[in-house]
Amino acid sequence: MRTDLIERYDLRVPRYTSYPTAPHFGPGVDGSTYERWLGELAPDVPLSLYLHVAYCAEMCWFCGCHTKATKRYAPVADYLEALLAEIELVSSRLPARMGLSHVHFGGGSPTVLKAADFTRMVEAIKAHFDFREGAEVAIELDPRTADEAYVKAMAAAGITRASIGVQDFNPLVQKAINRIQPFDVTERVVGWLRGHGIDAINMDLCYGLPHQTVETVLETVDQAVSLRPARIALFGYAHVPWMKTHQRLIPEDTLPDMAERWRQSEAASARLQELGYVAIGLDHFALPGDELVQAQAKGALHRNFQGYTTDAAPALIGLGASAIGALPQGYIANEIAIDRYKAMVRAGELPITRGIAISEDDKLRRSVIERLMCDMGVDLDQVAALYSKAGDIFAPELAALSNLETDGLLTRDGHRLVVTEEGKPLVRAVCAVFDRYLAAGEARHSKAV
Length: 449
Description:
37% of the residues lie in helices and 21% in strands. The protein contains 17 helices and 19 strands. The longest helix is centred in the first third of the chain and has 19 residues.
């Protein structure tokens, strides 16, 4: 990647897992709004469910999630009771007993729960919802806190996919981010998963971490691929210590500079493709034949708060402190503070503290941005027609894209845009041109790569 392009376009822009993005949610959407929106859902519409377990055994210093570290189980058990109560609260506001096409347990770390309590959580979901045929049930797994009994309980509860946090296998890097996780720990958990029938395994890797070099990143990629996960997500570390104060424990002089981050990203991406993985969107990779690859080939890939997905459910319900949901009418976000979240749920309140109702213009722009993020291109005429508009509604944006076109980051044929190979790492900068909200929240976003 040319240095001048890095300097010009590596801006603070959203990851576009939603549009409008979370910094633009406000208090105008509350629990009563959410209750109304839930009641307006069609009874036969498939739902996607996200459950946020807001605790970890210890804090990883690179982490950007809403989570809290604890060595005691009592706070985790107390939080679980509130989560179970919220499941009942939300389901009671739905127009009928509804079906789930996707369920995702995230965090924090769901494996901080005891196996029996994880089973209770799944049973509570099944008591209030139906699992549709072929439903994907996924969990984020910390190999440091999962044992074989837990993996066995996961399999018995119907887990079909496990996403393993790795980040980096280098001991120096692991020490610098306070996540000591030797390769054999991850390898053992992968063996347990496959031994109990959970073959769909994802792995999360990260570049831009302290002390990383191109060589160490490639070593981690090779070790990860040796375990043959079905999917690998390759994320750039977002250093935002003004938002996540624990990141201040990472000395900034140990972080790679902008040019080195680019080299790490490009080298890791190239190595993954050399080793047989297909590039999916901006930062995911999958083995040929994986559902993500098939969806991308059909133009049916989607993007939500968990990243790239085949989940096409029109309604995503978020449960737990800080969880975000997406309904046809707009986005809703739960209270972030755990104690306040628990108090609201125990008072019988839907714990919504912010959100945003989306307009037809928001939906149109969201569709454009999603196609750019998923397909690395978009036919503006085709998308606009879905909203009874003409492609020339985007005349100002097309004019603003002229510099990116001149710099070789995208090509344009009428109202059809295609992001070039050189432009793919900067696709978020292309999407940002269509973002009417960006200026107000720019300082809260991470760099493009």
